[in-house]
Amino acid sequence: MFARDALSYDPIPLPDRADLTDAEMLAAAQAFHAIMLRRHTVRDYSDRPVERAVIESCIRTAGTAPSGANHQPWHFAAVSDAGLKQRIREEAEEEERRFYAGGAGDEWIKALEPIGTNADKPHLTVAPWLIVVFAQRWGQFEDGSRYKNYYVPESVNIATGFLLAALHHAGLCTLTHTPNPMRFLNDALSRPASEKPTMIIAVGHPAESATVPSVAKLKKPLEEISSFF
Q1: What domains sit in the chain, N to C, each tagged with a CATH number?
Q2: What are the C-alpha distances in Å from 81 to residues 98, 112, 149, 189?
Q3: Residue 167, C-beta contacts closer than 8 angstroms, at least 6 positions apart
């Protein structure tokens, strides 16, 4: 973390070391891939509650992500209060109506058609939790003076990926939602001007009638998403 006082470099022995055989590494990689293959973006949620301790543990996992200069420039605002979720939904839907009314452009709207989404976002109130991800563009000392954070988008994106994987591993479904603009979330959640909201993650259990768009199962093959040299 960052401190006003100078921090010196103090190397310690690697505290955790995996010592797997080649076969064990391959098995572990394939097992994790199999787990992540079962991750689906879900828009239809059950109102079945999720204990706060589960959400806390998943956010702790997100907090272990690497970050620029180890500044950890993220904040995760977890919301279960029904009234606050309703406020977030109403303001998000207001932005979404402008988006679908022409703000997005024809090409973007056309690209969304196979997903089956629209301006109505019932998942924002039905899902038991919303986690709003904030990127901290700068930090502040106790006296209000600022210090710079580094590689903020990259760091927050990595941490968010950790969070999504942790939530899935805990047996929960998620939906990443990015209304634009999202500054209303700073007011709703009392976050400072130094933080920029990057997404809302709906978290919960799928409804019995939950569906996913068939196109969501179409993933690019390895040869299209990678190169080996």
Answers
A1: 41-214 (3.40.109.10)
A2: 26, 30, 31, 11
A3: 58, 174, 201, 203
Q: pLDDT digit string (tens) for 140-186?
A: 888 888 999 999 999 999 999 999 999 999 999 999 999 888 999 99
pLDDT band at 3 (very low <50, low <70, confident <90, very high): low
pTM: 0.93
92 Cβ contact partners less than 8 Å away, ≥ 6 residues apart: 121, 124, 177, 179, 184, 200
Determine the Cα–Cα distance for residues 45 and 40; give it in Å rounded to an integer: 12
Cα of first residue to Cα of last residue in the chain, in angstroms, is: 36
